[in-house]
Specification:
This protein has 146 residues and is an alpha+beta fold. 36% of the residues lie in helices and 38% in strands. Strands 2-1-6-5-4-3 form a 6-stranded mixed sheet. The model has no long low-confidence stretch (mean pLDDT 94). Keywords: Hydrolase.
Length: 146
Amino acid sequence: MADMSDAERVGLVEQFWDALNQRDFAAVGAMMSEHGHYIDVPLVGVEPGAHGPAQTEARLRLGLEPLSDYRLHPGTIVVSGDMVITEHLEEWWWRDGEHAEVRFCSVMEVRDGKVDRWWDYVDLNSIFSVAPQWWTDHIAAGYQSA
């Protein structure tokens, strides 16, 4: 699938978001290329992010698996060459009822049927201002052990 059409790129990204919405972290990881890079842009230069399918899956599990509920609401998708840019809203719930609405702009490079780059532009304060301390500690410990 060396030459993908815009429709194929959009289809892959829609599958990607559907798998994430279902918290199928293995399926999301499998859509990353072996050298694919995933990071929240505010953390560029602070930590390395995830590289490849296994690290992407582990990073998603770290943050999203402990949530009591999670919903992804798809939004606009724009394609320009290998670049696919999306806006979406994620709702996060923790076990004691805390709730965050998190808006993302995701920039992806899609080549040969895989995601080579997934950079999320997000206001991390929209998460950390609401998140319970146990979850923040869990995230910090996970990033330190990676």
